Amino acid sequence: MSARALAFRTSTIHDAEPFASMNITPLIDVLLVLIVTLIMTIPMMTHKVPIDLPSGGAVDTHQPRIHRIVLDADGRLAFDGAPIDDKALRVRLDAVRADSDAQIEFSADGAARYERFDQTLATIKRSGITKLGFVGNERFQDFSAVK
Questions:
Q1: What's the pLDDT tens digit per position in 23-80?
Q2: CA-based angle 117:123:129, to the nearest 5?
Q3: CB contact at 8 A, 104 and 75
Q4: 132: part of which helix (H) or strand (E)?
Q5: Mind listing the pLDDT tens digit for each residue in 53-68?
Q6: Are 93 and 127 in contact (CB under 8 A)?
Q7: Which has fewest Cβ within 10 Å: 16, 34, 66, 105?
């Protein structure tokens, strides 16, 4: 064939045709990341102990009887300074609930395990205590100072 014959031949390659399939791999990757994110966050959002927090209102100058529950770093509980186990705590909390003038203050050591804190808080909630205050959290007000 001569050079002239090659120059005027029609091409058999069809470059102008659209692709029959689209690359959806990036779309699948994004969807998988979203699914994994949902799987990781849904259990964290549903794990909670519901507590009724007080709303603003008139200030009461009456001093209630205050009982203090202390959780130390080893997970031991004390009620008004005396060591107590979980079953005895439930009995004491039932007695406090019966007294309309009583309040509970809950103080936990910063090194206490969260699981133990949550168990104690759930025990307080199950006993029907509605007057509950947290003590000692002011030390965490400035996180740069906490070591």
A1: 888 999 999 999 999 888 887 766 676 777 667 777 767 788 889 999 999 999 999 9
A2: 110
A3: no
A4: strand 132-135
A5: 667 777 767 788 889 9
A6: yes
A7: 16
